[in-house]
Design brief:
The chain is α+β, with helices and mostly antiparallel strands and about 280 residues long. It folds into 3 domains: about 25-55; about 65-210, Endonuclease Chain A (Endonuclease, Chain A); about 225-275, no CATH class. Helix content is about 30%, strand content about 20%. The protein has 7 helices and 12 strands. It has helices at about 25-55, 75-85, 100-110, 170, 185-200, 205-210, 265-270; strands at about 65-70, 90-95, 115-120, 140, 150-155, 160, 175-180, 200-205, 225-230, 235-240, 260, 275. The longest helix is centred in the first third of the chain and has 29 residues, at about 25-55. The chain is elongated.
Length: about 280
């Protein structure tokens, strides 16, 4: 019998069983790697959800502008909430600032450490006595055009504007709007103008305090009840504060149902409204 010679260079013939390639990654290792990769992605997703929940990322489609209308809405509540939300600074301009909850919110912000600056028209001194404890944060606009803005910025991020004066009647009884713009660019534009007016404005003087009407929020009954509750020819109930333009010439007639009040709250509760100031 003759044996066939096998060439050393000839490839070995397959016997049907494949030999494991030592350079091939075993399947068990690949499965382990895939498992680890999946767990890493899972942990990353959980971390992203947790961070978003903690910092409360606002929705990208949130409207940066909101508008409120009186008398359908109580704008005093909107303003008070905005002022209470301040953490760093409030720059405020007002022609007429007489609403007590708003003034109290500004004073409270000052004592919370918020830098409060208030610019008023020099003809409007009604709030000066109530603002006495933060008088260093209040200035009177220089003579010239009226300070007719009713605006303020909060923390350089939010701008409040609109037609509503910061008075009880302006915020609750008249047809007015209040616009809130949650855009830093709008707040910065207002603050640039505010700085111009503030730098030319003057601090409150003793003369301002002398000419200001007294703070009547806690006035006792009797001779100190000096708010005039007048009823005009149209039957409208309007009250006048000492020091206002028409106060001296307003005549009281108790026979018509006109009354004296000790506080603005008492007058409003009885159905009177504040005289409009322009």
């Amino acid at each position: 019998m003759t044996s066939a010679a096998i060439s050393p260079s000839a490839p070995a013939q397959s016997t049907g069983a494949q030999r494991p390639d030592r350079y091939q990654t075993p399947k068990v290792i690949l499965m382990a790697r895939n498992y680890k990769g999946s767990m890493a992605w899972f942990r990353a997703i959980l971390a992203a959800v947790a961070i978003a929940t903690l910092i409360r990322i606002p929705p990208t489609n949130a409207d940066p502008v909101e508008t409120h209308y009186a008398p359908g809405e109580n704008l005093e509540r909107v303003d008070a909430a905005l002022i209470k939300s301040a953490h760093l600074k409030i720059d405020l301009t007002a022609f007429s600032l007489t609403d007590w909850p708003i003034i109290d919110a500004l004073i409270d912000a000052h004592w919370r450490g918020v830098r409060v600056r208030i610019l008023l028209d020099p003809t409007q001194r009604h709030a000066i006595e109530r603002l006495r404890e933060i008088a260093g944060s209040v200035r009177m606009k220089a003579p010239g055009p009226y300070m007719h803005l009713k605006s303020y910025s909060i923390d350089g991020l939010v701008l409040r504007s609109g037609s509503a004066n910061l008075t009880a009647s302006g915020l609750k009884q008249q047809d007015n709007d209040l616009v809130v713009i949650r855009e830093a660019a709008a707040a910065r534009a207002f603050e640039a103008r505010f700085e111009q007016i503030w730098s030319a404005a003057r601090p409150i003087t003793q003369e301002d305090h002398a000419l200001a009407p007294p703070a009547l929020q806690n006035a006792p009954a009797g001779g100190n009840c000096r708010i005039k509750g007048n009823i005009n020819r149209k039957g409208e109930r309007i009250y006048h504060l000492p020091g206002e333009r028409d106060y001296a010439r307003t005549r009281m007639d108790k026979g018509k149902g006109e009354r004296w009040f000790c506080s603005q709250e008492e007058a409003v509760a009885a159905g009177w409204r504040k005289v409009e100031t322009r």
